[in-house]
Amino acid sequence: MTTLALDGRFYRVSLAALPDAPKRARRFLKDQLTRWGLPSGDDTAESALLALSEMVTNAVTATGRDSGPVEPLPYETVATIEVRTAASCNGLTVEVWDNSPEMPVLTDASQDQEHGRGVFIMITLAHEWGCRPEVLPPATMPGKTVWVSFKWALPAVAPAPATVRPAIPAQRPELPALPRRAKQKTPAPTPTAEPDALSQWATGPDVLMRVYTALRASTRTALQTT
């Protein structure tokens, strides 16, 4: 089954307003239908191709040369025509821009008349049509865009169900435990006390005797002097 690639965006091509412009426009639309995966031989595609041919022919008649060589003549200034097309699941839209500000007019042309039936054919084939003023750079004078749209009933193609995998929580890889370094306790600094003068004195009975003897001597000396 053909996969449809309908994105709804406009694709465009610029053509010289020369006699072969309608043929080039039809080729562009056929190639685009193929890229979208649409058959170029069904009724909607054939109607769009015929309407586009008439629209481009009118644009060439209004702004360029519709007879003679298909190549530009020496010193001939050739106008530009832009063809745009977009497709979606609802239908097909075709637009043609030229640098003529004159809007298309529906005329009562006879069946054997060569020109003047383009608008009648266009509005007969299309579901909707219209025109609007539009300036296309680098042009400075306003031109116009003529558009037609076609509706179609494409079979609904259900997309293939996507394979949904259950979510798996992320897991950290198991790493081997690293050896821990034993924390060494730093011993508290021992306070250094200044040496006590009295602690350096010797202790014992001999010391007490010396003190007693010194005290008696000092007392005796004091009594003798008085």
From TrEMBL:
Keyword Transferase: yes
Keyword Calcium attributed: no
Chain ranges of the Histidine kinase/HSP90-like ATPase domain: 16-129
Residue numbers spanned by region Disordered: 165-200
Key words of the record: ATP-binding, Kinase, Nucleotide-binding, Serine/threonine-protein kinase, Transferase
MF terms (GO), sorted A to Z: ATP binding; protein serine/threonine kinase activity
Record-given protein name: ATP-binding protein
Species in which this protein is naturally found: Actinospica durhamensis
